[in-house]
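Need residues for this backbone.
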């Protein structure tokens, strides 16, 4: 894929990287935890035929230097800085999981820059106590045994049972790919996530279309919780994938990309 690595030239996130490919309506795809821009390789290959795809590496991942501490609101500012540098007025913003939390923070602060936005396996709820405790346990595990052991435990649980069973090599490849995500970035991300507030009001106030992509076997953004949010926006599109867990763009790349494509076309003509 021909794509351009660009770095922010100034500001708080100077040096942070994003990848820019294709022409047309700008669409920004924001990865989650613990991923980087390559999470979106498949949809980008398809969508770049008709759209301009911007894929940031959030500070501390991929080619972007770490900023510690980092908050979800900082991530939203980073995304806005990319649009400013590229002189893009409005875009469609899709965030996966933690990238969805950043998308919500962006929609809260910079709504006028959006033509539509989406939560790909993500949720507007803040962490509950159980989730915060889980994050603390994960941090202890990472500190004691290193991030690889943590990722070996975490990643297989992110995909559906069927994918795990039939695509073991793919699951191992995801783990290997993530293994270079340093513990020094993963821990600040956990802090950022547990400190984020509830943003259901952002869904209620949304005046542009909102997309929800839900995996029936998603344990990180559980279907029953996300379904309580889908009717909050004035205009929403909801897709439930029976055969997906938390990584639909890898588990069912074709169908999930099709949904993205239809949503982008809908926003373009709305
Ligand atoms: C992610 O995929 O970004 C994380 O699982 C989100 C989370 O831990 O809340």
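Answer:
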């Amino acid at each position: 894929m021909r794509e351009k690595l660009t770095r922010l030239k100034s500001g708080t996130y100077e040096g942070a990287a994003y990848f820019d490919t294709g022409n047309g309506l700008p669409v920004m795809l924001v990865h989650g935890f613990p991923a980087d821009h390559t999470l979106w390789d498949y949809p980008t290959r398809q969508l770049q035929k008709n759209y301009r795809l911007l894929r940031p590496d959030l500070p501390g991942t991929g080619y972007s230097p770490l900023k510690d501490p980092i908050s979800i609101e900082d991530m939203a500012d980073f995304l806005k800085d990319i649009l400013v540098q590229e002189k893009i007025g409005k875009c469609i913003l899709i965030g996966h999981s933690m990238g969805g939390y950043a998308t919500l923070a962006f929609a809260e602060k910079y709504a006028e820059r959006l033509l539509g936005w989406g939560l790909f396996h993500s949720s507007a709820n803040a962490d509950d106590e159980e989730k915060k405790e889980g994050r603390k346990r994960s941090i202890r595990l990472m500190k004691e045994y290193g991030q690889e052991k943590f990722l070996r435990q975490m990643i297989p649980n992110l995909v559906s049972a069927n994918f795990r069973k039939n695509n073991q090599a793919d699951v191992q490849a995801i783990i290997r790919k993530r293994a270079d995500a340093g513990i020094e970035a993963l821990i600040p991300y956990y802090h950022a996530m547990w400190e984020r507030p509830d943003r259901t009001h952002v869904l209620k106030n949304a005046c542009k279309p909102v997309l929800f992509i839900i995996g029936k076997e998603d344990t990180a953004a559980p279907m029953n919780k996300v379904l309580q949010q889908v009717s909050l926006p004035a205009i929403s599109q909801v897709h439930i994938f029976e055969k997906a867990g938390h990584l639909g763009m890898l588990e069912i790349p074709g169908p999930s990309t099709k949904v993205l494509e239809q949503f982008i076309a809908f926003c373009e003509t709305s």
